[in-house]
Amino acid sequence: MKKIVSLIIALALCLGLCACGAAGTTAATGTDSASASSKPSNRLEEIKSRGYIEVATEPYFVPFEFIDSAKTGDEQYVGVDIEIAKYIASKLGVELRIVPLEFSAVLAGITTGKYDLAISALAYSPAREENMNMSEGYYFEEDSGGYGFLVRSEDKDKYTSLDSLKDAVVVTQSGSVQESLVNDQVKAYKEFKRVSSMTDGFLMIGEKKADVCVCDVQNGQLYADANPGYSLCVTDFRFTVDESMEGTRIGIPKGEQELTDFVNQCVEELIAQKKITGWYSQYSDYAKSLGIK
Amino acid sequence: MTKLVNLWIKYYPVFLRGLGGTLALAGITVFFGSILGVLIAMMRMSKLRGLRGIAGVYTAVLRGTPILLQLYFFWLGLPKIVPVKLSDTTCIVVALVVNSSSYVSEIIRAGIGAVDKGQWEAARSIGLSESHVMRKVIMPQAIKNILPALGNEFIVMVKETSLASVFFVGELMTAYQSVQSTTFLAIQSLTIVGIIYLALTCVLSKCVSLFEGRLRVSD
Fold first, then answer.
1. Mean pLDDT (chain A, rounded)
2. Rounded to two decimals, what is the model's pTM?
3. Contact (CB<8Å) B167/A223
4. Please, which residues 70-99 of chain B have a Cβ atom closer than 8 Å to chain A?
5. CATH no., domain B2-216
């Protein structure tokens, strides 16, 4: 009898806790929107009034964003995307705060509206667009070389088309545009593995845990060059990417139209000034200097 | 091998900073986790059924869900509940502290439970009050069970904190991520980090067993 009573009490407490939790969150979001409507009318105004902008990024992707360990604080984050973030912040006249996170956490941080922007070499995908606003593309694959396969050198002639993947173990970063390319275009594969970071995918090729890594070819080439011991190479195959899906974009919390417009304006200016392609080659060289001989 | 050495020469400050971060994170977690854990353990052993129930559910939830899930949950949920602005690191530390407290409370409960029941009966029968028995008879013996287990909890935490690298809390796995992403040398940086972890846990468990030996002297 005692046991039953204590079980019931435990259950009641559980429900109570859940209810409290739910009430707490709704109350919090309630006040959030209330204060948002009373003071700044949208996120753009809010950023201006609080005086800083928080940009989430996964700083493990050369040359878009990476870490110069010789520096400290926000200075250690360098790369094309960081330059864009700096440009946006200075145009707004606010302080830039970089929030380094793992890629899946970057996406979660922007879809939940925890951070203002995600500038982490995000590629466009329809699923992504459903959960966040996306800017115009700021970096296009024709500048880099597109998406292709990284394989071991002995397989260079083996994997040259989508059909050739039917006997291959394919790997790519989970949540990336490469993953949706595989899902949409590759009809048959032996196995499809997903990893949290693209460099883990490259590593799996080198260690023979997978045969083909679907990647950005320049990024893949950088890895192949840094690890001659693995003898990796990028094959000639390139994915055909729908034009509307092209371009690397900036993620903005859903529904923030004013902020999206502002970001688009910044992107347009940077493209017109040909800044982004310049930064791309500048930071590719920078990244090479951080490697070891 | 030469690459490994060169990598260490060029990036050792990053790894050492990561080591410092790991130690600090584990230290803070176990310290505050112990304080919270004592409270939870007291609740679990309390005479009030309500308190016992709350503490029971608390430990069941925290020990029954993966720590990575808890980290995500606190990272997203905590700033929504707490009115002041929290940094990501704070959220993660709170999550680790809460998680650790559930394990510490069990350590304490088990430590007290392991003291022979006859001790309590004997002390009561010679006329000591309940609180007196607890403080002067049970606790001194229970401490001997609890402290080494707390040391082991610290060692476990050293390893668990690696999960915080998802949120870029500066510790050893974050150091690994930063180095391997710029140098593209994953195996080498992983080896360095692995050696550091192993050396650290070996030294710590040696300390714990020495300490345990000292506590056993009076037995």
1. 83
2. 0.75
3. no
4. 72, 75-77, 79-81, 88
5. 1.10.3720.10
